[in-house]
Amino acid sequence: MVELEVIADGAVLVGDDGMIRAVGPYRELRRRGGRARVEPVEGVLFPGFVDAHTHALFGAPRLAEHELRSQGADYQAIAAAGGGILSSARDVRSRSRPDLAKLAQTRLRALLASGTTTVEIKSGYGLSVQSELDQLAAIGALRSPPSVIATFLGAHEVPPEFRSRPEEYVDLVVDEMLPAVAQQGVARFCDVFCEPGVFTVEQSRRILGAAREHGLALKLHADEIDGSGGAELAAELGATSADHLAAISPAGIAALGQSSVVAVLLPGTMLFLGKTARAPARQLIAAGAAVALATDFNPGSSPGVSLPLMAMLGVSQMGLRPSEAVIAITVNGAAALQQAETRGQIAPGFRADLVLAAMEDWRELPYWYGVNLVQRVWVGGAACHLRGLPVNFAG
Ligand code: NIG
Ligand code: FE
Questions:
Q1: Closest approach atom of ligand 1 to CA 300
Q2: Is residue 375 in some structural domain?
Q3: 224 lines ligand 1 (CB under 6 A)
Q4: Are residues 30 and 164 in the same domain?
Q5: Could you tell me if 84 and 186 lie in one domain?
Q6: Dihedral through CA 79, CA 85, CA 88, CA 90, nearest 10?
Q7: pLDDT tens digits along 22-33
Q8: Is the CB of 193 under 6 A from ligand 1?
Q9: Are 202 and 230 in contact (CB under 8 A)?
Q10: Domain range spanning residue 23?
């Protein structure tokens, strides 16, 4: 995770199909480029950033909860009182699909403007068969760029109508939601919020086992706040990623280290919730795990879209080296979405997803914060328009 190749006065040769043909010093590539059109740029060119964990399809921000937490209430207490995820679910259920799509489109532009060229978006504010399918349909209908990968998160919370019989909600996820999601082909991954007070390890195992039978790849919100053995479960099931991990156990660290599960760490979440725990990035890497960083962009625990900010937090809060932090938002983010063969690197055979940042030294990326230094973005070789940014971001 520490090896970054840096090319001074470099160039990227992009084919008509939007894929990278060659990378190297400009003087060498100019000869190979033949009649290629040359677009000069100044700054540092990074691979497009890959945000492997967001809940970017939501309605209103949760401003009152932010104030409540400032007065000492905590995330779980707010959730137990019917706020939290349930309050966003009520909001999302009450909105029309065009309204939600418009909001999500605005937020996608903000992600793109921060350099994100591929983003995973989860459902999970529907919590009924129809509403989850509607959310996944809305995610599927979003206009690129950035390109979007959908995850089914029906098991994000137990909805009010099932509060006294959570096992029946798990039945609903397994017997009705998953078959419909698989039949409609609207999600690549299935995720579960495996956390004390939400879904147990046993329930998560049941849901993810069923998801695998339906051909979905697996993710897990694991050991986010209190921890319950989610990381061990992710390793046991061969999940693509285990996400959060601020409360992972030593056994969980060892299990992930010996597996091919990508550890997706979300430093914005603990910071925003005012919690001091941090995912043990160094221990995970020492145990042999691949570490990615993502935003967790959502209205409850991480209302932010910037992967460069997550990279800065990875360095300052988790002890990642700057090169590890850059790899965590590119190569390893792509691996956490099963896209590592074509995204996350500037190399021949990769999609020409590129981010130009106004800096002289690549180490400035995980350094400056509160300022967006992304100047230009290309997805599949096509230049994206970053102007006309959202005025009504909150909807
Ligand atoms: O990753 N933990 C579960 N899901 C989100 C929070 C979603 C919300 O609060 O709306 C998370 O932190
Ligand atoms: Fe999340």
A1: 9
A2: yes
A3: yes
A4: no
A5: yes
A6: -80
A7: 999 999 999 988
A8: yes
A9: no
A10: 10-47+348-384
CATH number, domain of 265, equals: 3.20.20.140
Residue 303 has φ and ψ, to the nearest 5°, of -80, 60
Ligand 1 atom, smallest distance to 125 CA: 10
Instruction: Summarize pLDDT for 169-182 with one digit per residue, the tens.
Output: 999 999 999 999 99
Do residues 320 and 255 both lie within one domain?
A: yes
Nearest bound ligand to CA 269? 1
Same domain, 23 and 55: no
pLDDT in tens, 67-112: 999 999 999 999 988 899 999 999 999 999 899 999 999 999 999 9
Whole-Å CA distances, 6 to 9, 46, 274, 287: 10, 10, 36, 27
Contacts by 70-76, CB closer than 8 A, 24 or more apart? 74/273, 75/225, 75/273, 75/300, 75/301, 76/197, 76/225, 76/226
For 359-386, the pLDDT digits (tens) are 999 999 999 999 999 999 999 999 998 8
* 141 CA to centre of ligand 2 in angstroms: 21
Asked if 354 and 318 sit in the same domain, the reply is no
Q: From the CB of 296, is ligand 1 less than 6 Å away?
A: yes
Nearest atom in ligand 1 to the alpha carbon of residue 224 is: 2
Number of domains in the chain: 2
CA of 378 to the centre of ligand 2 (A): 27
Same domain, 237 and 360: no
Question: pLDDT for 140-169, tens place per residue?
Answer: 999 999 999 999 999 999 999 999 999 999
Distance 55 CA to ligand 1 centre (A): 8
- Please give the Cα distance from 352 to 188 (Å, whole number): 23
* SS3 state of residue 364: helix
* Position 343 in a domain: no
